[in-house]
Specification:
Layout (H helix, E strand, L loop, with lengths): L18 H17 L3 E2 L5 E3 H8 L4 H5 L3 E3 L5 E4 L4 H10 L9 E10 L11 E10 L4 H17 L5 E6 L6 H13 L7 H9 L10 H11 L7 H16 L5 E2 L11 E8 L8 E7 L3 H4 L7 E7 H10 L12 E5 L5 H13 L4 E3 L6 H11 L3 E5 L1 H5 L2 E6 L5 E5 L3 H16 L5
Parallel strand pairs: 1-5, 7-8, 12-13, 12-14
Antiparallel strand pairs: 2-4, 3-4, 5-6, 6-11, 7-9, 9-10, 10-11, 14-15, 15-16
Helix pairs in contact: 5-9, 6-8
Bound molecules: histidyl-adenosine monophosphate (HAM).
């Protein structure tokens, strides 16, 4: 017998039963994006490698260690996207979105790929839900983007902490870099091997090191430093004021730099208590130089992305139900085998009226069919029996209450539709 083949390490199969939760979160994200005026964008899952080298930054862990990079048949280096912002900024330039009305507000959802050591909440293929805004300078948009990400989490009942910071701009960030360099140069031997290199190439990355010790030393070295230039300081103050206006609670974290190099000014991260090292459920910030870096006109940008797997993990940890409806509304059971044709006709009619309907196809006994109906999770079961049919009736069983009534066959579709509506209004804890 041939040996079995497993899925690649760090990936998951999302099976029926679980996939409904994903769909619920994805649908909720779509809905909130439309409410806030975002349109969907889809870009390829692979791009030319230099896009990420240039956009995300060559000294970041993502580029140095985590990219899935390969040569295609024409020897061009391609990479599976590790994130969505650089590809969308590329599309903004390539598809000339800058020549239309500004700002351009887009959202996306889909798989991203990072080669990292898999653990709970960390995968090699994971899924992000994200938004990007191009062409808006005002700190009001920073506040709105942050507020939207928190609004989304709040709708699920999630309790999360919001950390915010300003990482400054090309003018003031070198001051921070210098301070870190000066503070850590004398303690080289205490830093991990990666951070010794980072100190020379990009000391800010030490604040983002996976080693707690390195981060602690960098935090010490950066403590008390107010390096922001007046413009960045003013922008950050306004963002905080708008967040106060919107009643969004936050923690100012001067050591928050995020793991990607394109950020300018506002950076933020949404953290969950208690999911180990993978506390970050989402994060984002401003990237005012990215579009220009890809050959476009000077254009401010801001956005965020959340990890879908992490959102679901935290919902589970916080005991929050994911209110997803089952796969089926109605299951048809036949009392006699001869009624199979009638059942098929009725199924088509129910489906044609928008209902999710199914039946048994294994020739099971009525008792076994009822068992299957129970397992299917359908809230209603229609039972066809020749005696009832002769009287123009069928039995309708409410699986939640266990009650059974006779309904005229001619009224069945209307009755089931009405019952289903009432059922889901009762069952849904959140607005569907
Ligand atoms: P990021 O912080 O690298 O930002 O990723 C955003 C979110 O993706 C994380 O907070 C986490 O929930 C999830 N995530 C990242 N890596 C993994 C992984 N290996 N397994 C599971 N989930 C993961 C970005 O990607 C930026 N592009 C966000 C952004 C958009 N900034 C501006 N616009």
């Amino acid at each position: 017998m041939p040996s079995s083949i497993n899925r690649p390490r760090g990936t998951i199969d999302v099976l029926p039963g679980e996939v409904e939760k994903w769909q619920y979160v994805e649908e909720s994200f779509r809905r909130i994006c439309r409410e806030y005026g975002y349109a969907e964008i889809r870009t390829p899952v692979f791009e030319y490698t230099e896009l990420f080298d240039r956009g995300v930054g060559e000294t970041t862990d993502i580029i140095e260690k985590e990219m899935y990079t390969f040569l295609d048949r024409s020897e061009r280096s391609l990479s599976l996207r590790p994130e969505g912002t650089a590809p969308i900024a590329r599309a903004y330039v390539e598809d000339k979105l800058f020549s239309g009305p500004q700002p351009v507000k887009v959202y996306y959802q889909g798989p991203m790929f990072r080669y990292d050591r898999p653990q709970a909440g960390r995968y090699r293929q994971f899924h992000q839900l994200g938004i990007e805004v191009f062409g808006a300078f005002s700190p009001a948009i920073d506040a709105e983007v942050i507020a939207m990400s928190m609004d989304f989490c709040r709708r699920f009942g999630l309790k999360l902490d919001l950390h915010i910071n300003s990482v400054g701009c090309g003018v003031c960030r070198p001051v921070m870099r210098e301070k870190l360099y000066a503070g850590l140069r004398t303690r080289l031997e205490d830093l991990c091997e990666d951070c010794r290199l980072r100190l020379e190439r990009n000391p800010l990355r030490i604040l983002d090191c996976k080693e707690k010790r390195c981060r602690g030393m960098a935090e010490e070295a950066a403590a008390g430093l107010n390096f922001l230039c007046p413009e960045c300081g003013d922008h950050f103050e306004k963002v905080r004021n708008y967040l106060d206006v919107l009643d969004v609670k936050y923690i100012v974290d001067h050591c928050l730099v995020r793991g990607l190099d394109y950020y300018t000014r506002t950076a933020f991260e949404i953290m969950a208590p208690g999911i180990g090292a993978q506390r970050s459920v989402g994060g984002g910030g401003r990237y005012d130089g990215l579009v220009e870096m890809f050959g476009g006109p000077p254009t401010p940008g801001i956005g965020y992305a959340m990890g879908l797997e992490r959102l679901l993990l935290v919902m589970q940890e916080q005991g929050l139900p994911v209110p997803c409806s089952g796969r089926l509304d109605v299951y048809i059971v036949t009392a006699e085998a001869e009624l199979e044709g009638k059942a098929l006709r009725l199924l088509q009619e129910l489906r044609g009226n928008g209902m999710h309907a199914d039946k048994d196809y294994a020739g099971r006994s009525m008792k076994a069919q009822l068992k299957q109906a129970g397992k299917s999770g359908a809230p209603f079961v229609v039972i066809l029996g020749s005696d009832e049919l002769r009287r123009g009736k069928v039995a309708l069983k409410d699986m939640l209450s266990g009650s059974q009534t006779e309904v005229p066959l001619a009224d069945l579709v209307a009755t089931v539709t009405g019952e289903i509506d009432t059922h889901f209004t009762k069952v849904r804890r959140f607005k569907g």
